[in-house]
Amino acid sequence: MPESPATSLSRTFDGSMRGLTPVPGGHMKTPRHSYHPRRAGIAAASMDDIVVDVEESSALLRPADGPALSPTQRKVKIGVYGVLNTVILVPLMISFAQIIFRDPEFQPYMNDLVKLVLVSAAVHQICFTCVSSLPFAMGQVQDAGLIFLSAMCSSIIKSLHETRGDDFSMEEVLATTLFTMAVSTAVLGAALIVTGKLRLASFVQYLPMPVVGGYLAFIGFYAMEAGLSMMTTQSIKEPGDWVKLADWNALVLSVPGVIAGTAIFWVNSRWDHMAVMPCCLAAMLTIFYGLLLVTGSSLDDARAAGWVAEPPPSPRTITQIYGFYDFSKINFSHLTSQIPTWIAMYFVVAFSSSLDVAAVETALGKPLDHNHELQTVGISNLLSGLGGGFTGSYLFSQTIFTLRSKLDSRYVGLIVFFLEIAIVLSPFSIIAYVPKVFFGALQMLVCLDLMLEWLWHARNKLLPREYGIVWLTFLSMVFVNLELGIVVGIIIAGFNFIYSYIATSSVHRVMKRSRVERDLRERVLLQNMRMSIVTLELEGYIFFGSSVKVMDEVRRHVLVTTTEKQEAQTLSGASPMLSRRHAPSPYVARSLEDTFNDDLATLDSVFDDQEIHGYSSTPKAGKSGPAALHAARTRYFILDFEKVSGVDATAVRSCFNATKELLAQHGIALIFASVPTDAERLLRVHDVIEKEDGSGTGSLVFDTLDKALEWCEDELLVSEGVLPLSESAPALAVNGGNEGQHWQLLDELLPRPDRSHRKDEKLSITNSDGTKPRDGEDASAVLTRELGEMYVTHSLKQEGETLYRAGGLVNGVYFIGYGKVDVFMPSKIHEGLGPGFRGRKRITRVCQGGLVGASEMILHKRHQFTAQARSPSSIFFLSKSHYARMQRAHPALAARFQQAMLQSMAIGVLESNLTDD
């Protein structure tokens, strides 16, 4: 699966980040809640608590430490963890119900609505227990979707008020809102199942993390507003409603909850133990009822003062509660207006679920199938929606809490399911006996955890611009609305990506040479003129935003003389396009004997009216000055598209077409290499490159960078009056010269032996073929016809004939008299390297004076590649056995062959050190 944010970051039900490396220099001070186990600062000490052993057997987990539990101990431990999870989850679900139904119109029905949320939580739990691949999975109604559900409720009530004033019944409100949320949840579940079936889990993870962070911070803010509304019975939904808290009675009712939530947050920050949270909850209840006992107040007095919710006059049974779903009361006109909210909810829930799976995956130490787990989330939401419930997902905090118990049992989830159902079926109302401060403190705890995590601690986990996006998204949701806030965040994140993409260098200057192995004289000449071929390597998607950077890089790397600078400033219009052979421009055609006191300048300095004196250590005056300028001046400019994924039409017109015209003004040939098919079509349509038949005034395009470099090098040699040996053959090949001339050619191509004789020593030896050794040359080192026929096999290869094949035994080394030989990796071997490798790959092209097979012969390996003639070629083959016999009988001649092999490999190493290969 492709890399995504979910692979490095996870979240709990409250959305806090996990696994994201802080920005260097940052400090992690995030608290460690029992429902949100942190690993900041004590990761090494805590890993023993969560690392588990993965077996190949059916059991997923086993105890990592300590003696094995007896059956009775195991059952007790399962029961304890089931009860502990329920103690933590039930108050949380009640708080979530109060967040969903935060509008004052729902307060008289809160007891019944809480039971609906608990039913939905039980449905999610039984689905995760039965379907998930994790036996310790905990799934409940989760915060990721409940804000959207609450927004749907508020939107429907607001629409009813706007269209009908107060002339509507609560039966209509309950039927419409509950049906809308149930349908949205069921459709969400179906969409998640399809997403998982199509293995598109990575698709939903492309939601920008800063936008999700702003949303999760808004959840915390939303939870705080819901808690304050519940404790004070005041409607606090907009920033302007906060003035209602200035009332003394509202302050008295809300401040204890804020203090209690802050205290729980601090305690959980200091101590990371499974008993901390249950003890805090029990302590709140104990303190509340202890104060009632000390003051002599009754529970009815507390209700009258607003500390406890009023009990329903006649508690409804679960069947009566489901009577709220009265189809005759549903106002279907409000369904379509919730579609944008549902779309946003789909991406957020899917994204958050992926983060939860990634978090469990990290703690488990075993890769999980994200698509399967996403389907599990989809099934639970589908069944919850069909049962009139609400959205849910993995509850990471309790999943890890159960994982740390090292129990390989699904009974923990079953216990939670049955206890939640038992609470739903109980005849009394929980919220009528538990103080509002209790639930307000829980919502304040969620608020502090989320808002501090994303609005403060995130500064160390995100880049500065991303951290700013978190705040902008959050503020947009607070002061405008939820849906628009997400849209604003995504748009800003998109612009941030464009800016970052442009700022990141997608253009690189590289030093390259072709894979053509030439003779020594050509190599030396090309080495001296290597600066005249400029290669830019493009990367990524070239679009309107990055085209300016490409143009800047072109100007920065092109070198022209300052004389040309003055002439260029007087030019108007575009110069005529170059022909295929790219006849040298007037600037390049200057004779090396010209004596001009000049220097080099880049094109950006041309337009800025500046000079770059002594560029690349180029001498400005002196005998070698003009020659050095001529060698360093840019004559060929190659754009390598091998790493380019695509090009848009704007970049073609504003960048590449302008580049072609700019370089043409200075007589510089623009060449394209490795252009993708779609980009090549665009470039051809806009006359940037030549037509498919080679006509037109466009620039040249080559299949690979190697072929483009080879063409430029050949052109450089021609411009210097040197006919490339790869394009020519000696006269003996044309005229069919006698056999002795072939051996004479090979003798000329072999390195001359060291002159160890004195200069005044003259040799009067005449070879049998009439040739005489050179002055100071050992006669035994001269390759005569007799010696050649004795040791070397000569053959003429036509185009397409094979010298040897990959995998074959190495029998000797091949010397190229004239012609061209390509050494390549066959398609079968190249494609067998893995995905992305296609066709055969040319390793090198060997021309006159070169040799192939030397390294394999020295290393005693089989041939790694295939060698094939690409034109009529004269080939000399020296076998290993004949070479060994030559070393014994004619060591001086063998030394020349050995020097040829070593010199070829040494020059290859030197050239590779000077390039970026």
TrEMBL record:
It holds the Pfam family Sulfate_transp. Residues 754-763 have a biased composition (Basic and acidic residues). The chain crosses the membrane at residues 78-101, 173-194, 206-224, 245-267, 273-294, 411-431, 437-456, 468-499. Its main location: membrane. InterPro entries: cNMP-bd_dom, cNMP-bd_dom_sf, Membrane-Transporter-like, RmlC-like_jellyroll, SLC26A/SulP_dom, STAS_dom, STAS_dom_sf. Residues 1-34, 754-777 are annotated as: Disordered. GO terms for cellular component: membrane. SUPFAM superfamilies: cAMP-binding domain-like, SpoIIaa-like. It is found in: Membrane. It is a multi-pass membrane protein. PROSITE patterns: CNMP_BINDING_3 (PS50042), STAS (PS50801). Keywords: Membrane, Transmembrane, Transmembrane helix. Residues 791-904 form the Cyclic nucleotide-binding domain. Residues 1-13 have a biased composition (Polar residues). Residues 532-712 form the STAS domain. This is Unnamed protein product.
